[in-house]
Amino acid sequence: xxxxxxxFIFLGNLFVNRESFRTYYRLTIEECVLIGINSIMLFAxxxxxxxxxxxxxxxxxxxxxxxxxxxxxxxxxxxxxxELAPTIMAIIYAGKVGSSMAGNLGTxxxxxxxxxxxxxxxxxxxxxxxxxxxxxxxxxxxxxILSIVCALAGGYIVAFFASYITPTDYIYGLRxxxxxxxxxxxxxxxxxxxxxVSSISSFRGYYTEGGALEVGQSSTQAVTTSVIxxxxxxxxxxxxxxxA
Amino acid sequence: MIxxxxxxxxxxxxxxxxxxxxxxxKGKPNLIIGASGxxxxxxxxxxxxxxxxxxxxxxxxxxxxxxxxxxxxxxxxREIGMLFQGGALFDSKNVEENVKFPLDLLAKMPRDxxxxxxxxxxNRVGLQNANKKMPSELSGGMKKRVGIARAIVxxxxxxxxxxxxxxxxxxxxxxxxxxxxxxxxxxxxTTVVVTHDMNSVMGIGENIMFLYKGLKLWEGxxxxxxxxxxxxxxxxxxxNKVMMAMRNK
Lengths: 244, 249
Prior knowledge:
The complex is a heterodimer. The longest helix of chain A is centred in the middle third of the chain and has 41 residues, at 70-110. Chain A has nine helices and no strands. Chain A is an all-alpha fold. Chain A has one domain (2-241). In chain A, helix 3 packs across helix 6. By secondary structure, chain B is of the alpha/beta class. Chain B has two domains: 2-79 and 157-248, Rossmann fold; 89-155, no CATH class. Chain B has helices spanning 40-48, 70-77, 95-106, 111-124, 140-152, 170-187, 198-204, 231-237, 241-248; strands at 2-11, 14-24, 29-33, 55-60, 63-64, 80-83, 158-162, 190-195, 207-212, 215-220. In chain B, the strands form two sheets. A six-stranded mixed β-sheet of chain B has the order 6-7-8-3-9-10, with helices on both faces. In chain B, strands 2-1-4-5 form a four-stranded antiparallel β-sheet, with helices on one face. The chains are: A mainly alpha, B alpha/beta. Chains A and B meet through helix 5 of A and helix 2 and helix 3 of B.
């Protein structure tokens, strides 16, 4: 409970005694490159394989002859849009970006770089963390869109090279009974998860105490806490937005 | 001038600082000395408010920093330069960017003027050709000197140095001490140095505060320290063989 309160005070500190807009703009662009551009390859690779594997496994399970083959790609689409791209990739995002954020801030803490900022009269929370959160909110939804595209492309590659479903049926299934609200849902989730990962990881890193060992522990805590909160938020969002 | 009034600080049940009073004078190197674990660094952190004292107040030229409002704290903090034990240089920035950092955020001056100021400060600390080096490429002594350059780039009224000689060879230590002393005289800053290095004490100690187990036991200057008559201070001072030899002469 103490950590919970401390987390909200930490979030409140992001918005007091801020620096100039230009400073945040520059820092946010730098963070966007670190968070977003450097994650493109990983996201593309993981999503493509996830889409391909989902297609094979769905085809493996849908063996009844009365089920049309295009249902396979329909299932792949729904899984990719609703869960794989926003949620599973959020867990990978927490592992890559969240641990890096916590490690970075933790190292800055133990090497007194954060103290140096404070002594200069700079609100270190706002200066260091706000750009990370904004960059995360900007980049993660884009990464989720990339992930959806790559997952669906991965499924198409399977359709093209294997015999579970024809490419024409695959495309038909992707377009069949498409509900655009699922995209809204996925992007809403991506915003929430981006905030969860960046704020929790920054919080864990910022309050690191000790030495190199504790920096490692903070990174691990950042990932585990983020993943748990992501899964809880995932359920709550599904309940709120889909259960009608 | 910096004035400490009844500063106390505890961590849990452990009292680290117990009712510390004192004055750090302008234009002089003021030293806080004592063995490891006596609360020197905690006192320094309380003075710059990286740690908040449980009791007491710190006054910067009669302005109550501890109980001041947010604007006053920011105003005073922007008059402070600090050299940290490990340098605390920003890993992702090169030497020039590190030194320019306070100017970028806190000063309103043209770009060229900023670079002139950075070069001036780097010259002052003897690092003319290190502008583009990254902190990972610097030796311990160079890191300290870059830290000093960053601390003075904004022409601070108050300069704090936490263990400026730790981990340095004797020659570099003397160089850093002389640099701190010269900067103090040239810029007329109120300088506070935390150290347990007796070479520093005898070299630049014009106003010395001795801490022992969280208490201020003695205050004086480098000429008075050898005849203080305080047992704990004698134990600290004459633990150094050179000092012991000096006394025996």
